[in-house]
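Protocol step 4 of 6: structure prediction from sequence.
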Amino acid sequence: MLKPLNQVLLVKLLLFQKSKVDITITEDEKEKNLILGEVTAIPSNSNFQIGDHVIFGKYAYETFTFEGEDYHFLREEDVIAIKVKD
């Protein structure tokens, strides 16, 4: 397992499924190449929590393969929105 540093999040990419995360994405937003991800690891003093669902731009993250598994790194500042828990 990798632990991100310096306000970088480790995210798992998800599909836009309203029933799964209760987020509605308009057609206009889809054209902007937005992606939904689940935060799987955070640095110390992060504004996010593991399990948060975040929306970010298609080109805002970097992919790295480590020990046969893909990891997606995203800077906190590149998060456009977060699903607020009720």
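Step 5 (inspection) to follow. The longest strand covers residues 34-41.
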